[in-house]
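quick q for whoever's on today - can somebody do inverse folding on this one?? i tried earlier but teh output was garbage lol. tokens:
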């Protein structure tokens, strides 16, 4: 967590709203998914971890029904004003649709604020990086709402689910539960093995002695609402419907690889078949990867990360040329155990496990090759695995 985050968000609050008397501050982390991509809305398993970067919020209740929002990251947008009586997404509202959507989602579940609030936010997650800045914003908003209005019965899992509801219904992004869950339920030093079909989860320690978790930003921004993300979900649903004509399955995550191969001819559209193949095989890869991690076999974990990228590139087609360059160059470097695109895709970041002695070579090589092939630099991060949301 950025030690200056609280100071910066309070300064932003004072700039926007005049003073900081009675203000409370909160933090929620971003996330990176180690393996298990596009499985969360297919009833499969995911394996994300919270990061030590995220979203800070300074919040104070008002005495009327007005809500005012200000971003330290986008000061040029000024203060955006709306009301508890106007909770409908508006394109002109931009980023404020995320916290407003969470307020709306809380209201649909019987938690309606009686008065509005002023909120300033500051995030140290690179915008458009695919490290879940939107989920962090939703989770920090939910955490603040729970504290400000005394909704003590709202759990962190509830906050994750309400954040997802806001994203799905208020903002039109049909994401699964992974991003919000990873932010809301993060635990330092651990990734979360989550069965998105049952919501059962377990923490798994990530021991990377002598290794670093390296995240590389392609600096190609992605906007999942405007991308083909929702189309991928529709294609998987179509494949599932074809399979259900003969198979008693509720999700693609119910299938083993063998069951899928035996019945894949039921899927009439070849594109939908490839999408379903990724969902089934990625789910099994995730289960195998966590088992490998638990027995200390990081090399096998890395091999499965690489296979995940190939599947995302070829079957799911959510990679991009920039991420392919980064991963394929990383695979050539001795000491890189695994590398893959992470997040929704169509841009964003790659995640790699790199031995300490190979980190400098990793950065130098990828930086040089990426500039040569893409024409602008990538950005490199050595990030830690952090805790979930908190009041600071």
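ok took a stab at it. sequence:
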């Amino acid at each position: 967590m950025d030690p200056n985050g609280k100071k910066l968000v309070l300064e932003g609050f004072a700039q926007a709203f005049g003073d900081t008397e009675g203000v409370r501050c909160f933090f929620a982390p971003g996330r990176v998914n180690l393996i298990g991509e596009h499985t969360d809305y297919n009833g499969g398993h995911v394996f994300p971890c919270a990061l030590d970067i995220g979203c800070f919020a300074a919040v104070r209740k008002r005495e009327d029904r007005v809500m005012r929002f200000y971003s330290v990251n986008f000061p040029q947008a000024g203060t955006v004003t709306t009301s508890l009586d106007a909770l409908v997404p508006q394109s002109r509202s931009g980023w404020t649709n995320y916290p407003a959507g969470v307020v709306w989602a809380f209201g649909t579940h019987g938690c309606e604020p009686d008065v509005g609030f002023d909120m300033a936010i500051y995030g140290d997650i690179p915008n458009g990086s695919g490290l879940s800045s939107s989920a962090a914003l939703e989770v920090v908003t939910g955490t603040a709402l729970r504290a400000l209005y005394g909704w003590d019965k709202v759990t962190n899992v509830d906050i994750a689910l309400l954040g997802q509801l806001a994203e799905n219904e208020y903002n039109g992004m049909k994401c699964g539960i992974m991003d919000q869950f990873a932010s809301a339920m993060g635990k330092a030093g651990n990734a979360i093995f989550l069965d998105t079909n049952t919501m059962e989860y377990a923490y798994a320690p990530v021991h990377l002695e002598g290794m670093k978790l390296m995240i590389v930003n392609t600096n190609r921004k992605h906007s999942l609402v405007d991308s083909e993300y929702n189309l991928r979900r529709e294609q998987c649903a179509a494949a599932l419907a074809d399979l259900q004509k003969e198979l008693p399955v509720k999700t693609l995550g119910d299938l083993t690889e063998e069951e899928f191969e035996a019945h894949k001819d039921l899927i009439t559209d070849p594109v939908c078949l490839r999408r379903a193949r990724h969902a089934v095989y990625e789910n099994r890869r995730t289960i195998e990867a966590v088992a490998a991690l638990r027995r200390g076999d990081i090399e096998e974990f890395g091999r499965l990360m690489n296979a995940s990228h190939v599947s995302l590139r070829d079957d799911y087609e959510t990679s991009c040329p920039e991420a392919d360059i980064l991963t394929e160059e990383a695979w050539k470097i001795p000491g890189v155990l695994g590398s893959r695109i992470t997040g929704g895709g169509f841009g964003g970041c790659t995640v790699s496990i790199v031995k300490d002695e190979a980190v400098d070579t990793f950065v130098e090589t990828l930086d040089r090759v990426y500039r040569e092939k893409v024409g602008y630099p990538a950005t490199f991060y050595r990030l830690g695995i952090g805790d979930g949301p908190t009041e600071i």
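fwiw The radius of gyration is 21 Å. also The first helix runs from residue 5 to 17. so keep that in mind when u check it
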